[in-house]
Amino acid sequence: MFDQARTTLTTIRDLHRFAVSRFQAAELFYGHGTDNAWDEAAYLILATLKLPLDRLEAVYDAKLLPGELDQVLTTLQTRAETRKPAAYLTNEAFLGEYRFYVDERTIVPRSFIAEIMAAGGLDPWIEHPELIHRALDLCTGSGCLAILLADYFPDAQIDAVDLSPDALDVAEINVADYHFGERIDLLDGDLFEPLEGEKYDLIISNPPYVDAHSMDELPDEYRHEPEMALGSGEDGLDITRRIIESATTYLNPLGVLVVEIGHNRDVLEAHYPELPFVWLDTESGDGFVFLLTREMLEEAGY
User: Fold this and answer.
1) CA triplet 265, 225, 285: central angle to 5 degrees?
2) Is the pLDDT of residue 3 over 90?
3) CB 224 within 8 A of CB 104
4) Domains and CATH numbers, the chain
5) pTM
6) Residues contacting residue 243 through CB under 8 Å, at least 6 positions apart
């Protein structure tokens, strides 16, 4: 059908209708930037043609050159047949207005923490952003949250740690793109391992948190992402527990810890009944990201 499309389709409107039909027929999964076939097709067409992503209607009836048509159809066919996430086909992903380079060396950026920061969700706990001088991003992946930290807290020096050298290579590209090379230090290591003696005003992490059962049930799109960036033991909380139980050592007296855990709230609260987790609001609910202060951790014996 894609071969036939190369000889019959002419406009972006034609391509968009065709792509949506093919994506629906392939029963693709969406969750790496868009959440439906219509938006996914529009994004891939516009991104491949290097057109503004918010101007589909303005170019809807534009005719494509043969080379452009072939390039777009190749991208659409790859998405439909391999189920590779769109971000890996265009080498870009977005967190709000922030654009990041991405490839299969790292997980596609997506985080409730980015949404919380943009909405001022940390403001009640960080009254004076100018007093955030040291911040840490654990499991930094592509470096996206470290870059947001550097942007939101202009007086802060940021450490960003990941266990994957490949992911850190991608993070280095993004740090350079945002000209934060002098403020963000990328460190290769296992969580707090390379940080002996360091103290931070703010620690954030969007660690792997998929449980073993869910890992077995993931849609094919997620199979293209590094497995180590997704799974975290039988209940999905192996890494989160290590962060909680070590964080006090690395937090300043007024320090704050913020961690994303997906749908694991009930499991986490059952494991730590002594901890007064503060659950931060997101558009999808308030059970995905928790906040703890150093004082809360110390009072609970950590």
Assistant:
1) 25
2) no
3) yes
4) 2-90 (1.10.8), 107-299 (3.40.50.150)
5) 0.94
6) 138, 191, 203, 205, 207, 257, 259
